[in-house]
Amino acid sequence: MSVLRISDGVSLRYRPRALLMGTVCALLALALGVLAIGSGDYPMGPGQVLQTLAGNGAPADDFIVNEVRLPRVVTALLVGGALALAGAVFQSLVRNPLGSPDVLGFTQGAATGALAAVVLFGGGSLALAGGAVAGGVVTGAAIYALAWQRGLNGYRLILVGIGVASILTGVNGYLLTRAKIEDAARAVLWLTGSLDGRDWDDATPLLVTMAVLVPLVVLGCGRALRMLEMGDDAAAALGVPVEAVRLSLLGAAVVLAAVAASAAGPVAFVALTAPQLARRLTRAPGPNLVPSLCMGAALLVGADWIAQRIFAGHQLPVGVVTGVLGGGYLVWLLATERRAGRI
């Protein structure tokens, strides 16, 4: 742990390796974003992309970069960062590496809200996004209420979340059987997780949400979250209002996951995998919120680049790539833990 003195009486403590790895992940995410912007049927070099982003590109380059490709890349960066930050908060609060929106049922709730908006009310893209946010928030409130019993236990929250996720998976399947064929096809693509056709209307709500919630989580509640990892009694003895902080963090994480799902669908495994990779890179205890956010952004923009390029002439939904990569990582992690005798 190092200390940076800002002024008299004001100092900042940080871990050099965590700061270094977070910076590396952020730079990697930006580099992958530039690579993704420059790839496609109209190829552009990194220098040409950066020049265009600075406002010095040709009119054709400006249109391709700022109107066609940049919104998709920005959406990928924001969705990956939001999911990873939500996953880091959940895993820290429940003190379990399986604590993520994928496992706890929040993404299934967002999917239920989106499907209900499309199937039951015939809504378009805006209604789908609003339904996803509403479904995720309502599901989060229901899981919290069901898991509450003179306090919130991490394992009880996971078990309730898994049960709710199973119920909502069945509901989602039923809603798909009731949908018109064109609505069902659009819903299935969204459920897989896709960034196709994303524009600034998709990126702007997520950008505003993260501008509000990231400082709240990282700066406002980050220190309290580290204390909560020591246990409720220890945190309370150190002056942390345990239930108020936990409820605030859970609410922020649920909103982040729901808004991310509204922008790109319930993209699999980013929220589960990114915090684990960030922890392994930083080798630091605690939630590793900023490194996790940067790792999630890098993972999703990289996965989207792979999804667009792996098969010539055909684009995969990004959720397919994250599912394959994340599932492989989970199998490797379980095998490693078993060899180490921890499971």
What does this molecule look like?
With 343 residues, the chain is mainly alpha-helical. It contains 15 helices and two strands. The protein has a single domain, classed as ABC transporter involved in vitamin B12 uptake, BtuC, CATH 1.10.3470.10. It has helices at residues 16-38, 46-53, 59-94, 101-104, 106-120, 125-147, 154-178, 181-192, 200-220, 222-228, 232-237, 242-264, 270-282, 289-309, 318-339, and strands spanning 2-7, 10-14. Strands 1-2 form a two-stranded antiparallel ribbon. The longest helix is centred in the N-terminal third of the chain and has 36 residues, at 59-94. It is globular and about 60 Å long.
User: Which oligomeric state applies?
Assistant: single chain
Total count of helical runs of at least 4 residues = 15
Which radius of gyration do the C-alpha atoms yield?
Answer: 20 Å
What share of residues are in beta strands?
A: under 5%
CATH class (first level) name: Mainly Alpha
Query: How are strands sequenced across the largest beta sheet?
Result: 1-2
